[in-house]
Amino acid sequence: MVTIKRGYAAGLVSVLLLLFIMLSYYIAKHPVNGFDTHVTLFMQSHSWDRFLQVTNAIIASFAFRIIYLVFILVFILAKRYFLTVFVAAAPASEIITSIIKAVISRPRPSAGAITIYDPSPGFSFVSGHTLEYTILFGFLGILAIEATEGRPRRYVLASIAFLMPLVVGLGRVYSGAHWLTDVLGSYLLGMAILISMVCLLKGAFEPKYRFK
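Given the sequence above, the corresponding C-alpha cells read:
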C-alpha cells in the first residue's frame, strides 16, 4: 500500500495550501494579467490543441457526470463502501468552489482578449470541473496502484487516471472558460484535499481482494 508518514503528509498539504493562498491573493490583485492571456492565446494558436475543445465539451456536459453513479454502484456492489466517500467528495467540492469564487470574484475570460469556445456564467477562480476531476481521477489513480494486479497494468491504469485532470484543465483553458491560473489553483487545492482524505481514510484502501 502507498504510505505517507503523517508528518510528511501534513507538511505537503501545508505547502499546497500555502501556494494556493498565495495564488489566490495574486489573482485577487491581478484578475486579468498578461501571463494568463499569453498562455491561452498560445494554446489557441496551435491547431493540434483543438482536440481539447472536444474533450472539454464531453467532460463539461452534464451527461458525463453519470460517471459518479457508475463508480458508486461499482464500489457498493464490491462492498467497498468507504471508497464511495472519495467519489462523493468530487461533486461535493462544488461547495468549496462556490465559496472561493464568491470571495475572489474573478471575471471569466472575455471575448475581447481571447476566443471563447465555451461561454460560461459566474466567476472564474477556481475551475470547478478541474477541482472535481483532480479529486476523482487522483483517487482512481491511487486505487489502480493499490488494487490492481500486475505492475505494468496498474501503472498504465494509474497513468491514464492521473492524466485526466491535466486534460480537463487544459481543455478549460483552451475553450476560454478559464484562465491557466484558475486551473493551477484547482490542482493545488484538489491535491491537498485528496492527500488529506487518503491519510484520514487510508483503511478504505485495504482491499479484501484485488481487482483482476
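Confidence is low (pLDDT under 50) at residues 208-212. Try to locate this feature in the C-alpha cell string yourself.
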